[in-house]
Every structure is written in C-alpha cells, then in structure tokens.
Amino acid sequence: MDKRTILTTSTRGLLEDSFPYRLYQKAKRVGTWNPADIDFSQDQKDWQTMTAEQKEDILKLISMFQAGEEAVTLDLLPLMMAIAKEGRLEEEMFLTTFLFEEAKHTEFFRLVLNAIGETGDLSRFHSDTYKKIFYEILPETMARLVSDQSPEAVAEASVVYNMFVEGVMAETGYFSFYNSLETAGIMPGLLEGIGNLKRDESRHIGYGTFLLQRLICEHPHIYDLVTAKMGELAPMAIQINQEGIEGREVSSFGGDPDEVMNFTMKQLAVRMEVLGRAKGKKIEEIYKVSDSEIGIL
Ligand code: MN
Ligand code: FE2
Asked: How far is CA 31 from CA 40, 99, 121, 141, 289, in A?
C-alpha cells in the first residue's frame, strides 16, 4: 500500500470550490428528505379506483424501480472503494451521500408497496432483458472494481451505473410515472417521492458525468470506450420500452407510448453529448464546472 498523505492538515486542505465538494454540500442541504415522512393515505384510496390494467402497469414500473434501487444500493461500494484508494477525498465525501440516498430510494418503493398492500412476488415483472441489466451486467461490472481499478474499469462502471441505469433507465421510469399518474391526478405520495428521487438522481448522474469527463480528460482514449459501451447498452433500453408498450397504441392511462420511447432516445443522445464536451478541456475546467452546466436540479 502507498504511504498515506493526509490532505486536510496539509496546505491543500479541502478543494472547497471543486465540483464534487460543491455537490456534497448540495446533497447535505437538499438530500435529507425522509421516505418515512411521506403520507400515502390518498395513494391507498386511489389504488382502489384504478383499473386492473392500470394497476398492472404501475406495479410493473414499481417492481423495476424497487429491484433497481436495491441493486444500485448493493453495487455502489466497489466504486467508492476505488475512489477512496486513489485518495480522492472530496469525491468520496460526496459518495457517502450517494449511498445513503440509494438506501432511502430502496426504502421508499417498499413503503409504497406496503401502503397499497402488495405482498406478492413481483419478480414476474422482470423480463429477460431487465434481468440481463440488473441481475448480471450491473453487479458484474461493479464487482470488477474490487480487483481492477484501472481507469478503463472505472469508466465502464460509471457508464453502466450512472449513464445507463440512472441516466437512461431511471430517468425514463420517472417520465413514465409522471406521464401516467400526474396526468390522471392520482397517487400524490408516490409522485412526491419520485420528485425527491429525481433531484437526488440528478446529483448521482452529475457525479458520473464529472467522473467520466475527468477520466476522458486524463485518458482521451476512454471516450471511445464510453461510446462503445453506450452503443452496446442502448438496444436493451429500447427493448425494455417495447416490452412496456406491449404493442398498445394507447397506454392504460390514455397517453401515447411513443412519448416514452422518444424520451429514452433523447436521454441516450444527451448523455453522449455532455460527455463529448470533456474532449479538449483542461482538467481545471472539469473541476470548475457549474451545477447547471451538468444538469443538477
Ligand atoms: Mn436511486
Ligand atoms: Fe442514484
């Protein structure tokens, strides 16, 4: 092991105006909502009034989120370890809030399921493509970091976790929740939580964007690796959308299923566009990036 250098008693101190430190400060200010404080009494009433098809669609979405949040809670640690090993203190300080928030997201969806009285096995909603992502690719890519902390391995992990699972899959899921429940004016507790989740996730995705931009800046060949990985994952997001639509022309809440697909396609393009901005930047510029430039809510 390398000899330890203590940062906070050195002249360096903490990099207080760096992006990861500012993100850590923001998480402490706005990331402290408590899932257990959300009132689900109206959601319970609304659930009784929904059609069987609507219930099935919402349960499917919740079951994918519930498993997804559990997976990201369990799979984040190897990334934190890799970052800590490199002595990137400000990044690790932010990551402590990241893991705390994923735990709260896992708690949140279970509270929703409890409130609507759902006690059955929901894994029937997990298709083969879903399982490929959350039961295989995500845990395997993250676990690789335990023994391999190369920039390539860290970049691949961040693409899978932050850009794809959070930046494309979860963002599409929020869109679907709003598209159905907000339009119908039902399940306010679920929507309140989704609003909080969405803000938390904007910081997680923002961190991943910073991390990948830093890696691309330090090792320019990483950009091609990132593009290739996103290209490999993209068809799975499209596939999961198609499974959600099930050939219907109108969703169970009356919306146009194409809107969800269009949103996914837009997310895929946006992620790559933002990462491309790292090319040719100086490392100091990456650390100075503002919240709004990186899309923090
Ligand atoms: Mn989450
Ligand atoms: Fe997250």
From this structure: 20, 11, 31, 27, 21
Give the pLDDT confidence of 157-189 residue by residue, as tens digits: 999 999 999 999 999 999 999 999 998 999 999
pTM score: 0.96
CA of 10 to the centre of ligand 1 (A): 35
Q: In angstroms, what is the span from residue 116 Cα to ligand 1's centroid? A: 21
Largest CA-CA distance found in the chain, in angstroms, rounded: 64
* Cα 76 to ligand 2 centroid, rounded to whole Å: 9
- CA 148–ligand 1 middle distance (angstroms): 25
Task: Please report, for the chain, how many H helices and E strands are present, in that order.
Answer: 15, 0
Collapsing DSSP states into helix, strand and coil, what is residue 255?
A: coil
- What is the C-alpha to C-alpha distance for residues 207 and 295, in angstroms, rounded to an integer? 10
User: Which secondary-structure segment (H or E) carries 90?
Assistant: helix 89-115
pLDDT of 191 higher than 90 = yes
Q: Shortest CA distance to 187 belongs to which of 111, 239, 292, 101?
A: 111
